[in-house]
Amino acid sequence: MENLLKLYCSYHPDFLDTLNSFPENIKLKILKNLQNAKNKVKIRSLIAEIQFGLKFHNLGFQLDFEKVYYTNQTPDWTISNKDSKAICEIYRLGMSLKDQIRSDFENQLIEKLQKIPFNYFIRITFFEEYFDPDIYDIDLIINDLQDWFKKSEKIVGDRIIIKTNFLFEVRKINSNINHICYYGNTNSIDIKPEKIIQFEHLNRDNEITKKISKYNRLISITKFPYFIAVSIDFTSGFDYEDFKEYFLGKGVEFVDFDSPIVNIEQFGHLGKEWTELGIFYNNPQLSGLLILERNEFKLLLNPMKNQVIYKKENESLLEKIKEIEK
Predict the structure, then answer these.
(1) CB 3.0 to 4.6 Å from 291: which of 45, 152, 217, 298, for a disulfide?
(2) Helix axes 97-113 and 40-59, enclosed angle (nearest 10)
(3) How far apart are the C-alpha atoms of 7 and 17, rounded to whole Å?
(4) Which ranges constitute the DSSP H helices of 39-134?
(5) Mean pLDDT across the chain
(6) Higher pLDDT, 105 or 317
(7) Handedness of CA 76, 81, 82, 86 (dihedral sign)
(8) For residue 178, what is the DSSP state?
(9) What number does CATH give the domain 47-95+192-325?
(10) CB neighbourhood size of 202 (10 A)
(11) Which of 92-101, 167-176, 261-270 has the lowest mean pLDDT?
(12) Considering the entire predicted model, what is its pTM?
């Protein structure tokens, strides 16, 4: 078992036992993926896949994990109910690998910073937001900082730049403490709307946009419903309402959802202010979103009634997928 998996299991000792709920072939494939994971971001993404897989299993779906289709694509989950199938791609919305690397560096720096025996509250600023931590030795940074403290008594506002990238500033002095305290939080949540919203100025598609159209060819051949399942980490700063607004839109209560086809062009004469239609209306291949937030599952269905999920042959699958919120 790899170190990262061991570390996760040390905090979640019953984790491996939960995998016994899956058929043996799926369990072995998941274990192999976990053991091969090289970083925390990958581990957490796999955990999200497992969480949705366990939910699908508990709902009574038959499961295929990373099934290879004739398009040479492997959706995370294929879920089946009677003669109806759907594919589901998982996306964990949290720290990127770059964010995680920086966060780990910060945590190690702060841990050692708080062992320095002076009574200052210190603020840290990184001039370069993302950097290669391998080029910096935390112990050398701490030694330089300690030498600076020893040279003279500091007052509020004194500052030093170390290794051209780290600014340390005295923000407060408290005689009741005997060690450095960290003032503020460099790990504060940095909301990046471009992780969800595909702005026109972006030079490449974000992960949500990629997943929306990822299986277009497979969907057109199989006619399977397609869901994107999003596990929202609190560090992302997003919640279910953000997805609801972006995919359904604002003011959509004026749209006749029961109409066989909702043609957004027919509403153009009303002007843009009366409503703002969401992404679902331009992406009829997407059946809906499954959202996992604070251990609660939520469903956001595409309201277009000509979407494949509403076809008669998918009735039982739709009813079962609706149970995800119970």
Answers:
(1) 298
(2) 120
(3) 16
(4) 40-59, 97-113
(5) 84
(6) 317
(7) negative
(8) S
(9) 3.40.1350
(10) 11
(11) 261-270
(12) 0.69
